[in-house]
Write a structure and sequence with these properties.
- By secondary structure, the chain is an alpha/beta fold.
- It has one domain: Rossmann fold (3-Layer(aba) Sandwich).
- Helix content is 49%, strand content 14%.
- It contains eight helices and seven strands; from the N terminus they run E-H-E-H-E-H-E-H-E-H-E-H-E-H-H.
- Strand 5, helix 5 and strand 6 form a beta-alpha-beta unit.
- Helix 4 runs parallel beside helix 5.
- The structure holds NADP nicotinamide-adenine-dinucleotide phosphate (NAP).
- The site of NADP nicotinamide-adenine-dinucleotide phosphate has 31 residues, from helix 1.
Length: 248
Amino acid sequence: MNITNKTILITGGGSGIGFQMAKLFGSKGNKVIITGRSEDKLKQAATQLNNVSFIAGDVSDAASVDNLVNRITNEFGELNILINNAGQANVYKLGANVNAYDKAAGEMETNYLSVIRLTEKLLPLLTASKGSAIVNVTSIVAFVPGINLPTYAASKAALHSYSQALRYTLALTTGIKVFELMPPLVNTGLSVDIGGANGIDPEVVAQHLIDGMEADNYELHTGKTADMYQLFLSSPVAAMNALNQGRE
Ligand SMILES: NC(=O)c1ccc[n+]([C@@H]2O[C@H](COP(=O)([O-])OP(=O)(O)OC[C@H]3O[C@@H](n4cnc5c(N)ncnc54)[C@H](OP(=O)(O)O)[C@@H]3O)[C@@H](O)[C@H]2O)c1
């Protein structure tokens, strides 16, 4: 698909992968809106970038999402691409007294349920223009769970399944294209506690998304995710062992 002259919303666009997406999409002549909870972070990001505005908000809060949708409608009048990138992760291992329920609840709210609410509320705007798309950012752990991110992996698996259903449905009903970006370990704030310094650069991930969207490649297996996916197809157990080697 063509990705110039679009109005694009990137959740979690103030840092990491979302920031690099905002930079690349902005440099391609798109109007980019970034959102996140920290207004200071967004302001700082927007001043460094071209064609980028910000609206602060929490994607897991219904009133905040209503405000975001109203402001996009009133101030921009259109939306062509929604990138559901905001995410959070708890690094821990399952066991007794780890409070897994609360950790899982927070991850499901931010990484999965918020995407469902925001997407549904923005569908009228996305449907109103031709050439629209939705991008959901999942992860390599959406199909092979990492045991140090167990409930985060489950939230991404849920988002992966939802993305497949959304793609199939919207292709039949609206023509909106649904992409899923599945990065491996990336060097960002989110991955500091899981050796993120050894991960790939977030700019590489953002470029892979742009290349994939231009080629209409709907499920994007970035970097090492590609090999892990092939291993998973041939042997889910071998993939589980390979991803978790050294993490026991
Ligand atoms: N880093 C990796 O290794 C890796 C690998 C695979 C997939 N991913 C996925 O890539 C996406 C981006 O993560 P990242 O690695 O770039 O980490 P990051 O730099 O920590 O970015 C996450 C962004 O999400 C925003 N955010 C978190 N909770 C939010 C909420 N409730 N409402 C609005 N915004 C919220 C944060 O901003 P505020 O704190 O200001 O709200 C932050 O800007 C995530 O979905 C993550 O799961 C990351």
